[in-house]
Design brief:
By secondary structure, this protein is an all-alpha fold. About 80% of the residues lie in helices and about 0% in strands.
């Protein structure tokens, strides 16, 4: 099972790299590709990998920790913005948004999607698919290591090709 999870995860990374950097498609196609890989790939693999039914329960303590860490992360981003705002090139950001097909008419929709939909999709894939399956299969160290290193690698795919190599150094 470990080989299927890691292999399919690496396939997902390679596929998204091709879409992001080689094909250079607009944001809509990038989003569609991410949904195919991050949602349908795990569902497809669940059909072929025997799994025991797992009970899922929402624990109050876990929810409070999640909210606390979410608040800390959000606060860190806001603080970093205020500290670094003089060095942010807003013209470059606007150019990149326009290049991806994002303009004033769809910006709010895209911003809400990235904040909610994309985040939940990535959490489902990285924590729900990769981490939980490796952990439940008895590969606890591999689960922690692989899922924690894999997400930053995917984030690096969003940047230009020259930056990609530095993500793995």
């Amino acid at each position: 099972m470990k080989k299927w999870i890691i292999g399919s995860s690496l396939f997902a990374c390679f596929f998204l790299y091709i879409v992001e950097q080689v094909m250079e498609v607009n944001y809509g196609w990038k989003t569609f590709s991410k949904w195919i890989v991050f949602l349908l790939l795990p569902i497809f693999l669940f059909r072929f990998i025997k799994r025991e039914k797992q009970e899922k329960s929402l624990q109050k303590k876990g929810l409070l920790f999640g909210l606390l860490f979410g608040f800390i992360s959000f606060s860190s981003i806001i603080i970093a913005y205020f500290v670094l705002r003089e060095s942010i090139d807003f013209d470059a950001i606007i150019w990149e948004l326009k290049k991806s097909g994002i303009d004033a008419s769809n910006f709010i929709f895209v911003a809400v999607y990235i904040t909610l939909g994309n985040s939940l999709l990535e959490e489902f894939f990285f924590r729900g698919f990769i981490f939980l399956n490796l952990n439940q299969a008895g590969y606890k160290k591999v689960a922690y290591l692989f899922s924690s290193l894999y997400l930053p690698s995917i984030i690096c795919l969003s940047f230009n090709r020259g930056f990609l190599g530095s993500c793995f150094l």
